[in-house]
Amino acid sequence: MSTLAFEIRANEGCKPQPILTWDSVWDSLTGYADWAYAPASETYNVGGLRAEAALETAVMLCLFSDRYCPPTHPLAQYIRDGDPRGWWGDGADLRADLGEAPLGSLLWLLEATPATLPVAQWAQTMALEALAPLVGQQAVVRVAAQAQLSPPSRLNLAVQLYGRDGAQIYARQWDDLWREAISGPFWT
To answer: What would the DSSP string read from start to end of the chain?
Structure first.
């Protein structure tokens, strides 16, 4: 009679599993997001890209990807070079039945918006609209945003996200990137 030996690995399925989407890490000195190597604390992701801040990455994608601007938008007249921008994937597979919405924001329209318009109000409205899919997909319960104009060359944008228990789970402010990215009539 032969005996079979089995190794029981009871805890293997309970170990932390890697998040398959990596983080976009904001560098406030350069004003850009990039990827970073996983820290030593991510023992399940050795040699991979950092994957600890999915919500932060989602916020950056929502705010700083250029959404398509329809010709009927009130600021469409300020589009430079006639390019309404947008992400090609929104035209390929957008599933509204799953809570999907077009990716990105219209914040890029503020590059050429004249100073006679309420730029801070537009920025706040655009940020809230861009972050609304996070509520629709139940990643957060509530989104808040504040924009403040700091002439002559700065627009500050602050964002807060709230969880199911009403507690703030995310808070971030962007400022210097506007000074670098925007050089239109608004800033002259």
So the answer is: ---------TTGGGSPPPPSSPPPEEETTTTEEE--BPPTT-GGGTTSB--S-HHHHHHHHHHHSB----TTSTTGGG-GGG-----THHHH---GGGT---SSBSGGGGGG--TTS-HHHHHHHHHHHHHHHHHHTTS-SEEEEEEEEETTTEEEEEEEEE-TTS-EEEEEEE-HHHHHH--SGGG-
Amino acid found at 63: L
pLDDT digits (tens, 9 = 90+) for 133-163: 899 888 899 999 999 987 666 788 999 999 9
Tokens of 100: 């999907």
> Residues 17-33: pLDDT tens digits?
555 566 777 777 776 67
- Judge if pTM exceeds 0.85: no
Please state whether beta strands 25-27 and 168-174 pair in parallel, antiparallel, or not at all (unpaired).
Answer: unpaired
Domain boundaries, the chain: 17-52, 55-187
